[in-house]
Amino acid sequence: MAACDEGDLTGPGIAVDETAQLKDGDATACVAPQHAGCTGHVENCITTVFSAWVATSGQAWADFDVFVPGRWEKDWRRRRAARIPGKLERKTKPQLAIDQIGRLLAAGLPANQSQARTWDGICRHTALAALAQLRQAAIRNALCGDITLPDAAAGSSHHDGLDGEDDISGADLRIPLGDAPVPARGGQPCPPGIAAIRLTIAETARIERLAGSTPPG
């Protein structure tokens, strides 16, 4: 059986992700309080970065590494007790993923380093990125209420560019960034001498993630 269906323009690829095993106590090798994707919260767990070979005919795990948290890097007593190899260096999760891809390609595993090589893939990736940006802008506007879209000129229209015309200007796409303070809310502390926070799209995304991971009450 061929790895990919006839007509597939992307070909087989390597998918990289991480998973967590929740643990009690602190004796298990590489256990530490860290983000656990399976729960979406910080948990006492072990994190493993793994690679899978993916094709239209199926998929299979191909490589993995256990992530070494910072507290284990120089704690030689705990490392010896947990039988962690002395020469094992601590690496970030992205570096573990890069190393795995390098090993798999060096071993001859046929795979193509991008999920957006085809026309459909590129368009979908770009559309999703744009929608994510707009979502953060909408959340920011709900907090600040400062984003206003300019009125279109009378009789104007927009084209998709397919006929060679494009009358979309920069003003049509303008969204102000970093120029709106977080509004004051009644009952909330406001220490004197501290200026209002300027809320950017990136900061909005960070606040949203923190709010989503904070239990109510």
Write structural notes for this entry.
This protein is α+β, with helices and mostly antiparallel strands and 217 residues long. It folds into 2 domains: 94 residues, no CATH class; 92 residues, no CATH class. 29% of the residues lie in helices and 18% in strands. It contains 5 helices and 4 strands; from the N terminus they run ββββααααα. Strands 1, 2, 3 and 4 form a 4-stranded antiparallel β-sheet that branches. A hairpin with a 4-residue loop joins strand 2 and strand 3. Helix 4 packs across helix 5. The protein is flat, with a radius of gyration of 24 Å. About 9% of the residues have low confidence.
Question: What is the terminal separation in angstroms?
Answer: 56 Å
| Contiguous helical run count | 5
Task: Please indicate the count of domains.
Answer: 2
Which parts are unreliable, with pLDDT below 50 for 5 consecutive residues or more? 158-162, 172-185
In total, how many beta strands?
4
Rounded to the nearest angstrom, the radius of gyration is 24 Å
Biggest sheet layout: 4 strands, antiparallel
- Helical content stands at 25-40%
Strand content: 15-25%
The assigned structural class equals alpha+beta
